[in-house]
Protein 1
Amino acid sequence: MSNSLYFAYGSNLDRRRFSRRCPGATVVGRARLPDHRLAFTRYSSKQKGGVADIVPEPDAVVWGALYEVDEACLAALDGHEGVPQAYRRGTVRVIDDEGVEREAVAYIANRTGAFTPGREYLALIVRGAREHGLPEEYVRAIEQVETHA
């Protein structure tokens, strides 16, 4: 079985959460997805609010972490992400810290609207962003997203 790169940009940035889902995954480093923005386009009854998505938008950027994962990890993530009802696997072209463009798997929401994320869910994203050393300006922008209890 071959390994793939996985681009985490939402709650899977949180290392504790991700290591429970994919214990054999290896952190490769930071990456950015150009011409996309972070949005909350799907309601999750489990999270009681909006969940993260990557939406095409010129001149915007989504930062995240690259993990090396195997097929068993992707299968586990498919279950956690609710494939194919809630999310679908897609391929994105990200740029790593060395400026190299890399192809990675990302989960893209089956959009149902615009929703406010819950405070705890957003906190997972912020904590993971800090753990991976994402740019401070980007982390502060996430912290400014309106939430609800």
Protein 2
Amino acid sequence: MSTTLIGKRIVLRPLRADDFDQWRDIRRANLAWLTKWEPKRPAHGPDVVNDRGAFTLRCHSRDREWQIGVGYGFGVFVGGQFGGEINLNNVQRGPFQNAYLGYWIDESLAGNSYTPEGVVLVLRYAFEQLGLHRVQISIVPRNAASRRVVEKLDVRSEGLAERYLEINGEWEDHIRFAMTAEEWSARRTELIAAWL
């Protein structure tokens, strides 16, 4: 895929098979930082962290999601180096026009506001290029780092969804945050000036 989003300090673009070495190294270095917030890998599922072939298939799968319009995945690059991911997942059209936004960043880059910058880039893309009406972000309440991202951007909270997603083998509550196209339109100038 060729879509590249350029911010003040970061570049977002789809991951390619030749990103594997950087991706693997960051994922390995951040094992404890990330896995407590992610779904558990199925016992017999592919190991995309350590298997180049599985990572390549993941990239091809993401490319297919772009082609059929159900998902838009971006690697986060800081100074030309891979540092995380921001993804629009489960895009639903029809009367809903909704997507779910998820993100993660290398722990060594956390606290530098790269993720809020990336979220604003992806929100602009979602509302202005994809024509979505709503983008949702769901966060485990005790995940202070992820919550700080939506707090910095003042994304509206919609409340607690109990036992919403399986995270690391447990059904976890999530706080649901959302922005609509109307909210983006009202806040676009402010968010772009502050972050892009």
